[in-house]
């Protein structure tokens, strides 16, 4: 119960904007201006145009663009460098938005974070067209602005994101899915773009290779912590916190870290497999979900997931210790500690 209450009070989505306060509103505004420019289109009055307008005016947390700018603070502070970072931060956010649109289509999701999803609001065709249009604009502006090195990093991250989604789809309803497979899948789904953000910020601001790689590794740790904590939120019964039904992942045959850790405990397979089978059959009841949750908690799945988060927290803190001290490094430390807070 303590873990649930802590997650309700300090969910990643709730506290992240405040913790990224090291980036000014003016900097975020500049990124949003580039997003608006890069998503400008001739499709006014159409469903596809509406999707693109929604994307351009998105008031999301802008976590990934902020990471680009924060990593960039370790390099050269010049007007031309800042402008390149604003452009790249915009491209990164567009990449994230395109991935969310495509995810909603694949998942046939009616809601996204408590609001109607793009595909349910405007139709699948418009969602597909808009997602593809965003990806084409990303390629165009990376090439036009001469952001070739950063473009290669983003392209690799997109490839890994696709691989993570494909891997997750291949593992759905598999009772023998491994923790290594789970880690590989979330590395693609979430971690790859976090890592790319930090790599791009460092590289494009002129950091040397040592600092760039350290920040890249920091982004990787942060991505793992973020996704693992997000998976723990699925065990929070207040759907208003996460924008979906509790245990929607389990219902859809996506077995996340708490479940997999519990399954590996003595008796875990015997106790959990009946519910995994019912998720595959589509016959899970509310009582089944409640019982599954009780089993996972009793077998230490939640505590085990926290231990994994703390492992990445220690790595991230060690990296920050080795980086030059600054207001931004202190702010990054606060983010890591908050993500690891139980």
UniProtKB/TrEMBL annotation:
CDD domains: Trans_IPPS_HT (cd00685). The keyword Metal-binding applies. One of its GO terms (biological process) is isoprenoid biosynthetic process. InterPro entries: Isoprenoid_synthase_dom_sf (IPR008949), Polyprenyl_synt (IPR000092), Polyprenyl_synt_CS (IPR033749). Its cofactor is Mg(2+). The keyword Transport does not apply. Gene3D superfamilies: Farnesyl Diphosphate Synthase (1.10.600.10). Pfam families: polyprenyl_synt (PF00348). GO terms for molecular function: metal ion binding; prenyltransferase activity. PROSITE patterns: POLYPRENYL_SYNTHASE_1 (PS00723), POLYPRENYL_SYNTHASE_2 (PS00444). Keywords: Magnesium, Metal-binding, Transferase. Belongs to the FPP/GGPP synthase family. This is Polyprenyl synthetase.
């Amino acid at each position: 119960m303590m873990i649930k209450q802590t997650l309700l009070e300090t969910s990643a989505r709730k506290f992240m904007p405040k913790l990224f306060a090291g980036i000014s509103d003016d900097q975020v505004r500049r990124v949003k201006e580039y997003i608006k420019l890069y998503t400008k289109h001739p499709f006014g009055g159409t469903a596809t145009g509406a999707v693109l307008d929604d994307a351009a005016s998105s008031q999301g947390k802008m976590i990934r663009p902020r990471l680009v700018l924060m990593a960039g603070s370790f390099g050269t502070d010049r007007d031309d460098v800042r402008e390149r970072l604003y452009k790249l931060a915009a491209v990164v956010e567009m990449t994230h938005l395109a991935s969310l649109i495509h995810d909603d289509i694949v998942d046939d999701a009616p809601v996204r974070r408590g609001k109607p999803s793009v595909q349910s609001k405007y139709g699948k065709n418009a969602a597909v067209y808009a997602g593809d249009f965003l990806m084409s604009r990303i390629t165009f502006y990376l090439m036009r602005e001469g952001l070739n090195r950063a473009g290669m990093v983003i392209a690799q991250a997109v490839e890994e994101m696709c691989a993570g989604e494909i891997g997750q789809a291949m593992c759905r309803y598999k009772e023998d899915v491994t923790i290594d497979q789970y880690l590989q899948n979330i590395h693609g789904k979430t971690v790859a773009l976090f890592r790319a953000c930090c790599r791009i910020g460092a590289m494009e601001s002129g950091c040397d290779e040592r600092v760039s790689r350290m920040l890249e590794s920091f982004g990787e740790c942060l991505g793992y912590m973020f996704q693992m904590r997000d998976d723990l939120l699925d065990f929070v019964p207040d759907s208003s916190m996460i924008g979906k039904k509790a245990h929607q992942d389990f219902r859809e045959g996506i077995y996340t870290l708490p479940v997999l850790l519990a399954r590996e405990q003595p008796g875990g397979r015997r106790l959990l497999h009946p519910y995994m089978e019912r998720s595959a059959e589509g016959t899970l009841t509310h009582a089944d979900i409640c019982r599954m949750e009780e089993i996972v908690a009793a077998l230490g799945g939640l505590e085990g997931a926290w231990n994994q988060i703390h492992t990445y927290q220690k790595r991230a803190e060690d990296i920050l210790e080795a980086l030059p001290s600054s207001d931004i490094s202190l702010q990054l430390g606060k983010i890591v500690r908050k993500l690891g807070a139980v």
